[in-house]
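REQUEST ID: PR-0412
SUBMITTED BY: lab tech R.K.
PRIORITY: routine
TASK: structure prediction, single protein chain
INPUT:
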Amino acid sequence: MMTPIHTASINGHPVRLFRSPLNDGRPDFNWVAWDDLLAAFPLPSDMKTDFIRRLRSDWPDESRTVATAEGLAVLVAHHAAQGFLAAMTECLGIDAECNYAMGAAAALKLMTGHLAFPDGVVAYAAAASRRWDAEGGTA
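STATUS: complete
OUTPUT:
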């Protein structure tokens, strides 16, 4: 069972952030509970359902279903959450990117607390940012 490493406040809604569910030992940024992120925006139910469907069909490598204390949750990779937030800014005029960035920074601090600062943390973040570069986003 996965537990969140941090809960960010996005538009006044709690959004759970997790360690990577991939468990392959490679550096990765936080993953985000997709339903939490969708709930932070005033989207119609049918649009939320479409976002969930399209996530699975268009970005299958960037999402995983995991067990949490609250039940099953679909997690999305950090960059997928960033893309969704940018779309919400552009399409709805709701800018929550700063809220998310603060939450992601807190999660990164927790994930890298065992590393020397700044060199170890910067090396981890650099490797995590390159993780999804190859083959169009495949881990």
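NOTES: Strands lie at 6-10, 13-18, 31-33, 63-68, 71-77.
REVIEWED BY: pending
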